[in-house]
Design a protein that fits this description.
- The chain is an alpha+beta fold and 420 residues long.
- The protein folds into 3 domains: 148 residues, no CATH class; 71 residues; 147 residues, Histidine kinase-like ATPase, C-terminal domain (Heat Shock Protein 90, 2-Layer Sandwich).
- The chain is 63% helix and 10% strand.
- It has a 5-stranded mixed beta sheet with strand order 3-4-5-7-6, with helices on one face. A two-stranded antiparallel sheet has the order 1-2.
- Helix 1 packs across helix 3 and helix 10 runs antiparallel to helix 11.
Length: 420
């Protein structure tokens, strides 16, 4: 089984190279012929070939040679079908086009393509230069083999213009796709980090309780030590076991803290962070087969810090709002950013909250979510949300009447990036 894996991988790679060659050849037939009655043409082939090199690692030279062969043979067979004449005649006619893809591939072989993908301007300029060089060689070969009265200077200017257009078109499309994928991965990463952040907070609170429990167990041991030696020994053993649990929790907490304190490479605008949350909960509503209109109102904007804490607070409130709506409804996330305080208002027209429960919904252990077996939810809960808000020196309160409205107020300086 293991010996067949490299063969299968090689076969898949060859088939992809073959597909690139075929698509390039077909794309080359969608063309503009700039010189009247001349064999020279501008097509979409180089766009397809260049894009293929960007989206998947390929043996560049081999792919270029295979593409050149497919273009020469393919165009020759097509011309025989349309115009007749000999196969050799058409092969000679299309040799310059094959030279284009050979030179084009050789040029890309000489540069660190993977590194340049991160520098779109430089990549676009280099690709333009490669286009100009390849087109010039194709033009010279066409002049030698077929036509001897082509305008060289005009052709060169045209090569530059077409090279710029084709190269930056490909780089632009690739950059948009890459940025979209990176944005998607960033949203997923922030969701995971926000969940880990809350779990780390919960673990920290648990460690405080364990510390107190350890102290109580040791005090019990001291009281029993004089009269009840057997019970005292058992109490001391319990204290030691609890202490070991605490040390394990500390190690886990240390690992989680390293993850949740990660510095993100970009500075998030408040509106950008909120759009992540809105999109995530639109997907959550769709997953639950609910028709929910979510509106974001953010007239003021600034760069943020404490991304994970803020994400955890608002994502939890928005997810609760989604769950509170039975079939269809609306959710509004309204932001009022002032110099000293930023308010986040999450409103929904779901089932609402019983007035008698409003005073306890932020208490630890409270939940309104139960599974089919009657077991309470183990989610982060509003108590942890409140703790995060208070860690940011803010406050949270709720009203519920015709709609349910959670209001979170956080000092702006605690979530706004300095030197904005």
């Amino acid at each position: 089984m293991e010996s067949t894996q490299p063969h299968i991988k090689t076969m898949k790679l060859f088939l992809f190279m073959l597909l690139v060659g075929l698509l390039t050849a077909i794309g080359g037939e969608i063309k503009i012929i700039p010189f009247e009655e001349g064999p020279f043409r501008f097509g979409l082939g180089s766009i397809i070939f260049f894009f293929a090199l960007l989206i998947r690692p390929l043996p560049i030279v081999s792919t270029g040679l295979l593409t050149a062969l497919i273009v020469i043979v393919g165009r020759s067979l097509l011309d025989i079908f349309i115009y007749g004449q000999s196969f050799v005649t058409h092969i000679v006619e299309h040799l310059p086009a094959g030279a284009f893809y050979t030179v084009f591939a050789l040029c890309f072989k000489l540069i660190p393509l993977d590194e340049l993908k991160k520098q779109p301007l430089m990549l676009g300029l280099l690709a333009t230069a490669f286009e100009v060089l390849s087109n010039t060689i194709e033009h010279v070969l066409t002049d030698i083999l077929l036509v001897s009265d082509q305008e060289t200077f005009t052709s060169f200017l045209l090569f530059i213009l077409v090279g710029l257009l084709r190269s930056f078109f490909v780089v632009g499309i690739y950059s948009m796709i890459t940025m979209s994928e990176q944005k998607k991965q960033l949203k997923q990463l922030m969701t995971i980090h926000s969940e880990l952040y809350v779990e780390a907070l919960y673990l920290q609170k648990t460690m405080t309780q364990i510390e107190q429990l350890t102290a109580n167990s040791y005090q019990l041991y001291k009281k029993l030590k004089t009269n009840e030696e057997q019970l005292a020994s058992e109490a001391l053993h319990i204290a030691q076991e609890i202490h070991e649990v605490k040390k394990d929790n500390e190690r886990i907490h240390a690992g989680l803290s390293k993850i949740t304190k990660r510095n993100y490479p970009s500075n998030f605008l408040l509106s950008e962070l909120l759009s992540f949350i809105v999109e995530a909960n639109e997907n959550y509503a769709a997953y639950l087969n609910k028709s929910i209109s979510i509106t974001l109102i953010c007239p003021d904007d600034y760069q943020t810090k404490n991304h994970i804490a803020l994400f955890a607070i608002l994502n939890n409130l928005m997810a609760n709002a989604v769950e509170a709506i039975e079939k269809s409804g609306f959710i509004t996330l309204n932001v009022v950013a002032e110099q000293d305080m930023t308010s986040f208002i999450v409103e929904d027209n779901g089932v609402g909250i019983d007035p008698a429960l409003i005073s306890i919904i932020f208490d630890a252990g409270y939940t309104s979510k139960f599974n089919e077996q009657g077991q309470g939810s183990t989610g982060i809960g509003l108590s942890h949300t409140k703790t995060i808000v208070e860690n940011l020196e803010g406050n949270i309160h709720v009203t519920s009447d015709t709609s349910t409205c959670f209001v979170v107020q956080i000092p702006t300086e605690n979530i706004q990036k300095e030197n904005d």
